[in-house]
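Data availability excerpt. The first of two example chains:
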Amino acid sequence: MNVLRATLVDIAREAGVSTATVDRVLNRRPGVKDRTRNRVFDVAARLGYIDDSTDPLKPDMSAQALVEMDFVLPSGTNTFILDLARHLESCALSRPDVRANIHRIEGFNPDELAAKLAELSGRTQGVGMIAIDHPTVREAIRSLSAAGTSVLTLVSDISNVPRVGYIGIDNRAAGRLAGYLLGRLLQGRPAKVALLAGSLSYRGHEEREMGFRHILSEAYPKLSIVEMREVRDDLERAYHEVKTLLVRHPDIAGIYNIGAGNRGVARALEESGRSNDVVFIGHELTDYSRRFLLSGTMDVVIDQNPRVEAREAIDRLSRAIRGEIMPASPHIRVQAIFRENIPE
């Protein structure tokens, strides 16, 4: 029978101290009272975290290697997020030094995200999240970090908070790439285009919109954005918005979907018989967007690799928890995928 090894969180809970204090004690750093130090060593020995309670200067390094982290992701129909969660779980299971928990909460709700972060304070060593750029979330991150928890953002970043890094693509560059490709595919002629976003409360979606608008103003001024709709990454909302859009603007020539909901956009285009004459650019290569590329309903998918992001997120959080020197955040490559270069 496999017995779960104790973690710093377990010791901190039993000893009534923070994980940062436990870390200082076990790594023989100054700044801890003798009584507290002895209590931490007693608990660590009782939980089997160190191999010899009579010699507290010799912690069990194999046990000490285990770190505990939590990831907070939005719920819903976003296939990319489902893939990311699956890769996080798979990556954690492949590493005996990591225990990871995945939490799904209502997307686009800053109060719920802040409440989840407060709930995790003192119960985990590290938290990774898709951040919502909102004052309540920023304050929750500051409190979490002050309690000794390492905080990492992935996919979408947040400003002015203590964090150990951001794992994701350059979203502004991704938006510029989408605008460049749309302009080229429409051959620079005068045309109407529309934007769909999950929510601009995600900094990543806001940056994609900014990049898209800037490249159009710089290189393709004849393209006019006639609609901008937030669909909250919901495929049904995306479907109804595009159906309405096609009626309101029958001469629409291009659609850029900044977030999720590609299935809804594709369904509306196909039902309206417009899938061959409207240029449709979206994000994330999934089983669905792969099918839309092959059928011609989608023209380009701008992809980021969730498997790589999951691996880098877990590696960076585990390094931060152990207090290792942190290299610069890794660069996640942006890839434009057409029907002709779909990876196997």
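And the second chain:
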Amino acid sequence: MLTTLKENISIGRVYRLEAGEGEVVDTYIHQQSGRGVNAVAVIVKNGTEEVAHEVAVHIAFAKPLYLSRADVPAEEVAAERTTVEEISRNEGKPEAALPKIIEGRLNGWFKERVLLEQSYVKDEKQTIEQYLGGATITAYAQVVIGS
């Protein structure tokens, strides 16, 4: 490629998504200055193309790292739990209240990273899971140029 295009091109990530029966695929490419900088593909089961597209747009905006809590590596959760507990203790929170405080902060941490728990960008009163209704996301991929 270097000699043909006179550009240094490298492929960072490759995703392969396959839709099965009853599944809808949609994509979204966010553009800046006329070029795509953020591409999303999503597969939704028992949903419409409109739902799949809206979820793809949400993913481009919110950049979730995981689909569900089950997808978050246990080491990451343990490390965050330790950090949150340390912060709560340093703030002088009462020992009896620590478990609820830690769980509340962890829930907020999950909400930032887990797609199904994120507030839907077009209606923050509902999560993506609630927006989906009876549909489910079977897979998604996001590629951001420069990351």
